[in-house]
């Protein structure tokens, strides 16, 4: 190759690199400018829409309750900036949530709202949300029907067990001709890791008190202990009976029709040649089989007498809030929601932080207009230290002369019970999962794993306690120290329950030991005062404070003005993710549950390593 050719090739390569860089640079600028323009348009649109009243709801409208996601007491906090960017890029994959209070409020207001002529339920995306919440929704539907005389209709391709409980409260249940209903009862099955840990040469150091404190069993056994099986079977059976009685109260034909043995089901199933939809119709689980097209025609001709005008739950609640008159300054009942695992420090909504939840309670204590507080608990527990921080603030509210009522949702176990114990009254649903009064500590050491890989830890320290690490063997003396601390923590737990419930420590110990109870049995044992709904707990708080006319005020984290703007305005423009309940089944459910369990364990941060947590207490 001569010099001329070499020079030509160099120029060609330089021009190619320059051209590629120009393309990359142009693409970068184009994407950034495009995103900037989209943001400007959305900001302008959000400002314009937020200043204008919402479009009025027309007469003869149908309230369409799309219960898409999990029904929750408090929505999980998502950073508004991240939510906006994820939504704008179409990357918003967080499962949706629906506030229980929004559903109850909408149904109550729709009873007397002349614009609303009927309610249509869309339960396709409803996840398992806890039986007590399903009961509250079902009761609200029943109240709507009785007080308004308006029809409630539900259509589905498939109804899961949770979905069907709500669907059973409708006047008419319609199923797709190729659809099915999945009623399989309640169960508790988990994975156990003892042999896996041994093969990985990981040493699990477990410290616990309580015969039934089975949160750590997966790490010390390869199966469920007999004590845990007996305890779980009892509360699962009570909740299953609650489920069945709630369904039968709406559809009397189903009394005795729950096939709990495969042979009983198989006999009926063969009679319809394996047709799930026909099985559901023949056995009175549904009223009609229709395609979506036939269902639309049925609504127009038989129910609504014309083309329906649908209004969504979010739009209806927004309309009600916009039209609500300004409140006259008056006494209030404050509501603090404690949802999720209890961690030390500060946490965002959807989780409980010892300091952040205590701060919300303190805010209620220092607000002179708040005369009583309801603590709404939906938690399996967590950090013992954080639980005590929250309980201390509840006691401070009481010393300020304000009554505190604990209202247990689907779950108020272990630490969830700890933070409820000092309330003036404890209210629970019959299907609340509570109790689990016990305590444990656990951590792993990897000295054998590392040794197998040829890695060793060595050094010197001024005391026998120095250098304690996950890479070193735990000394027997330290094991005794930790176990003694755990036993002291258990004694504190049963002691505070004994003091607050006017029981002896021995009596509490007999019903504690980490055992889980249903709300119904907890009432019989004296662990709760009353069985009832969230609304009844609020009424009890008002009565304790001798209030007649009062407002409700939810005490929650305050967003900055710009965060609130993003949160309120932009959500109108972002696409809402759509989820099917089938996503919560099979492999998706297994992986999701493992991820949640591991996430909880990795985030546990009690300063003393002591936890009041119920692993088996997942909401049903």
Write a brief structural summary.
This protein is an alpha/beta fold.
If you had to describe this structure to a student in words, what would you say it looks like?
With 620 residues, the protein is an alpha/beta fold. The protein folds into two domains: 57-183 and 261-324, 2-enoyl-CoA Hydratase, Chain A, domain 1; 325-460 and 467-613, Alpha-Beta Complex (2-enoyl-CoA Hydratase, Chain A, domain 1). 46% of the residues lie in helices and 18% in strands. It contains 22 helices and 22 strands. Helix 2 (80-88) packs parallel to helix 21 (561-569) and helix 3 runs parallel beside helix 4.
How many helices does DSSP assign? 22
User: DSSP strand (E) fraction?
Assistant: 15-25%
Q: State the helical fraction.
A: 40-55%
CATH class of the largest domain: Alpha Beta
Report the sheet with the most strands, covering strand number, pairing sense and barrel closure.
8 strands, mixed
Counting structural domains, the number is 2
Radius of gyration: 28 Å
The average pLDDT is: 86
Low-confidence regions: 572-579
CATH architecture of the largest domain: Alpha-Beta Complex
CATH superfamily annotation of the largest domain: 2-enoyl-CoA Hydratase, Chain A, domain 1
What is CATH's topology name of the largest domain? 2-enoyl-CoA Hydratase, Chain A, domain 1
């Amino acid at each position: 190759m001569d010099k001329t050719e070499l020079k030509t090739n160099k120029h060609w390569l330089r021009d190619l690199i320059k051209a590629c860089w120009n393309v990359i640079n142009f693409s970068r600028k184009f994407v950034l400018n495009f995103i900037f323009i989209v943001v400007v348009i959305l900001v302008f649109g959000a400002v314009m829409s937020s200043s204008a009243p919402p479009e009025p709801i027309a007469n003869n409208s149908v309230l369409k309750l799309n219960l898409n996601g999990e029904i929750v007491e408090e929505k999980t906090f998502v950073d508004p900036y991240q939510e906006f960017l994820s939504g704008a890029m179409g990357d918003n994959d967080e499962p949706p949530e629906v506030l229980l209070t929004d559903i109850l409020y909408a149904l109550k207001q729709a009873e007397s709202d002349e614009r609303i002529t009927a309610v249509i339920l869309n339960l396709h995306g409803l996840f398992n949300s806890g039986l007590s919440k399903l009961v509250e929704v079902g009761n609200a539907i029943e109240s709507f029907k009785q007080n308004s005389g308006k029809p409630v209709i539900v259509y589905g391709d498939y109804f899961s067990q949770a979905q069907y409980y709500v669907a059973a409260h409708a006047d008419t249940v319609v199923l797709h001709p190729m659809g099915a209903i999945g009623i399989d009862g309640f169960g508790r099955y988990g994975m156990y890791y003892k042999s896996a840990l041994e093969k990985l040469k990981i040493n699990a150091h477990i410290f616990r008190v309580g015969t039934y404190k089975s949160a750590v069993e997966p790490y010390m056994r390869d199966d469920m202990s007999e004590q845990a099986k007996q305890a779980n079977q009892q509360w699962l059976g009570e909740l299953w009976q609650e489920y069945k009685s709630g369904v039968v109260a709406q559809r009397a034909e189903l009394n005795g029709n729950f096939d709990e043995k495969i042979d009983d089901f198989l006999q009926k199933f063969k009679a319809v040649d394996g047709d799930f939809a026909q099985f559901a119709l023949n056995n009175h689980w549904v009223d009609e089989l229709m395609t979506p097209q036939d269902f639309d025609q049925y609504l127009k001709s038989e129910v609504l007498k014309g083309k329906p005008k649908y209004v969504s739950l979010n739009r209806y609640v927004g309309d009600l809030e916009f039209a609500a008159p300004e409140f006259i300054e008056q006494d209030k009942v404050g509501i603090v929601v404690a949802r999720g695992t209890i961690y030390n420090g500060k946490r965002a909504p959807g989780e409980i932080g010892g300091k952040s939840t205590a701060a919300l309670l303190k805010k209620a204590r220092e607000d002179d207009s708040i005369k009583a507080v309801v603590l709404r608990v939906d938690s399996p527990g967590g950090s013992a230290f954080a639980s005590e921080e929250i309980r201390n603030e509840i006691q401070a509210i009481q010393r300020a002369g304000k009554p505190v009522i604990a209202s247990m949702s689907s779950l108020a176990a272990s630490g969830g019970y700890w933070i409820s114990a000092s309330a003036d009254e404890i209210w629970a649903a019959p299907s609340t999962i509570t109790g689990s009064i016990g305590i444990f500590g656990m951590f792993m050491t990897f000295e054998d794993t590392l040794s197998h890989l040829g890695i060793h830890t060595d050094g010197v320290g001024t005391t026998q306690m120095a250098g304690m690490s996950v890479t070193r063997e735990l000394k027997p003396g330290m094991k005794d120290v930790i176990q003694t601390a755990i036993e002291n923590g258990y004694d504190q737990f049963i002691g505070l329950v004994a003091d607050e419930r006017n029981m002896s420590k021995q009596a509490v110990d007999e019903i504690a030991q980490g055992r889980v109870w249903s709300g119904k049995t907890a009432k019989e044992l004296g662990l709760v005062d009353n069985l009832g709904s969230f609304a009844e707990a609020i009424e009890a708080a008002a009565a304790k404070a001798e209030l007649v006319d009062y407002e409700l005020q939810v005490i929650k984290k305050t967003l900055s003005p710009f965060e609130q703007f993003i949160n309120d305005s932009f959500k109108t423009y972002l696409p809402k993710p759509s989820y099917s309940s089938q996503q919560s089944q099979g492999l998706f459910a297994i992986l999701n549950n493992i991820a949640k369990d591991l996430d909880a364990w990795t985030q546990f941060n009690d300063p003393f390593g002591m936890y009041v947590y119920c692993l088996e207490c997942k909401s049903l």
